[in-house]
Write a structure and sequence with these properties.
24% of the residues lie in helices and 46% in strands. The chain is built from two helices and 13 strands. Strand 4 and strand 5 form a beta hairpin. The longest helix has 35 residues.
């Protein structure tokens, strides 16, 4: 049996623990609250509020893609970094890339800094450094290019310049369209004052 001294020591230990343990728990909880106060949850709110407000004020779509098939069977794909709605049924886009694939498998690549669309006109207008590269070896640039969405037809809004299989060329305008009398055949026609600088060694 334990002596009186042992019982007293045990009682003192139990009594001390009854006081020390709750105090330790309170200290730990206080530490947690102090740590929590160091984190300011409102610090990120101004950024979130600005972003949401900007999105509401200026709605936009990130990385939009358009894909369709024309009446003559060509596939047209257009992508952009972002697009914004305009007044009416139109929209504008930035950093545009496109690809037109005719039924015979030939590809034409398009790129531009900006684009405007008109839903009622079934066409888009590429602007700001328009570049066109065809499967037949033509690489030309122009300030504006109108591209139809319902048929294979692309027309420049002004002068063009670039390179072709025969050399350097320039023209007042150009058009890429399906041949009227030969379905399935596609033409790239340079109009107006056409200038060609022949480069020896290239196939005319």
């Amino acid at each position: 049996m334990k002596g009186a001294g042992g019982m007293d020591s045990h009682s003192r230990l139990v009594g001390w623990l009854k006081v020390a343990l709750p105090l330790t728990a309170l200290a730990l909880l206080s530490t947690l609250f102090l740590v929590a106060r160091k984190i300011d949850p409102e610090a990120a709110l101004p950024y979130a509020e600005v972003d949401v407000a900007e999105r509401i004020r200026e709605p936009r779509m990130t990385a939009p893609t358009y894909a369709g098939v024309t009446e003559d069977g060509a596939t047209l794909t257009i992508t952009a970094a972002e697009a914004r709605p305009d007044t009416g049924n139109g929209a504008s886009a930035a950093q545009v890339n496109g690809q037109l694939v005719t039924p015979d498998g030939k590809r034409t690549a398009l790129s531009a800094g900006a684009m405007r669309s008109d839903g009622t006109a079934k066409q888009v207008l590429l602007q700001s450094g328009v570049q066109i590269a065809t499967a037949t070896g033509y690489e030309v640039k122009t300030d504006g290019l109108t591209v139809a969405l319902d048929r294979t037809n692309a027309s420049s809004t002004g002068p063009v310049e670039g390179f072709g299989p025969a050399g350097k060329l320039a023209a007042d305008s150009f058009q890429m369209t399906q041949a009227a009398d030969t379905p399935g055949q596609y033409l790239l026609v340079f109009n107006g004052h056409v200038r060609l600088i022949y480069v020896p060694g290239q196939t005319p």
